[in-house]
Amino acid sequence: MAPQRGVTVATTDFPLYTIQPVGDSHLLVAGGGGQAKTGVPNAVEIYCLSPLDGSCILTKVEHVETSAGPAMNGCVGTDNKNQIVSAFGIDGSCYVYRLRPKVITQKVEETGSVQTDFSSGDGYQRAVRFTQDISVMVTGGADGSLRTWKFPDLKKLYEVKAHTDEIDDVDISPSGNRIVTIGKDCKAFVWNTKDGSKKTELHWDCRKDAKYKFRACSDNGVYLGVGTMSGSVSIYISFSLQKLYHLSKVHKIFVTGLSFAHSTEKALAITGNHDTTLFSISADNQIKMHQVAAQQRINPLFPILGFLFCIYLIYWIITTLGL
């Protein structure tokens, strides 16, 4: 089957704000209608990815309502015992859930929460990440402070006034020894995970008028996904920024989250062996799938054989003409 371009693979009954892959074959989404009693639920849902005719379909296997409010950001982590946990930012607090895989479904259970943002008004956690061994959880919020927490105890290790404005995003290096933060003050910093000391500042030309809403990077670092305020989705090669894919206004409203499917052999087999598969979400309650077709790759022996043939042809012409 040809790669799917912006096809709707699932529709929820609540606005979607965060999306995360769970292993090679599942996808977690969360969001909601807010604290007001509007009849729109605040919930977490898990979908199973299954191969179908060279692409894949999504089947809902779990639905859990979050009584505290809608999850606006989140992350998923797996420890060395294959225990899966997820953390969600709901207002100024972080709520932790444990995922218990079953034969058919995924069981989701809340295990704890902690206040992570202390803004003068209503607190708002903006981002959360785990180290790879999920021994440390890192949060950033509207108050501009970076906080690290011992996990699963949720005891604060330290906090740093990282930015003069809201923290937009945080990430942790694969080794776990560095944290990166970016903020609305157009600054980015690298921090020592152990003690919160600043290692360096990253510099770039900041455009406050940029119209993109969300971005994501594939787990192999090859692809970059961008979602915009107009509901458009694009995929680029990360090291060259060559545009591979673009679909205008695929969502009815701004994009709220992006997530690439994993690039393992198992995940590629599920999604149809395309070069990459990107999922996008929005407050329009829809999960869309975007795929880039596998590129035809030239066998490296062909250029070598062609070069040798050219040398032989030149030699034959020279000897034939007696030159």
From TrEMBL:
| Transmembrane segments annotated in the record for this chain | 298-318
Gene Ontology process terms (BP): endoplasmic reticulum to Golgi vesicle-mediated transport; protein transport; regulation of COPII vesicle coating
Keywords from UniProt, A to Z, are: Endoplasmic reticulum, ER-Golgi transport, Membrane, Protein transport, Repeat, Transmembrane, Transmembrane helix, Transport, WD repeat
Q: Name one GO cellular component term.
A: endoplasmic reticulum membrane
What does the record say about its membrane topology? Single-pass membrane protein
MF terms (GO), sorted A to Z: guanyl-nucleotide exchange factor activity
Q: Where are the WD repeats?
A: 118-159, 160-201
Where found, per UniProt?
Endoplasmic reticulum membrane
Is Ribonucleoprotein tagged as a keyword?
Answer: no
Q: What protein is this chain from?
A: Prolactin regulatory element-binding protein
Report the source organism. Paralvinella palmiformis
Q: What is the taxonomic lineage of the source species?
A: Eukaryota, Metazoa, Spiralia, Lophotrochozoa, Annelida
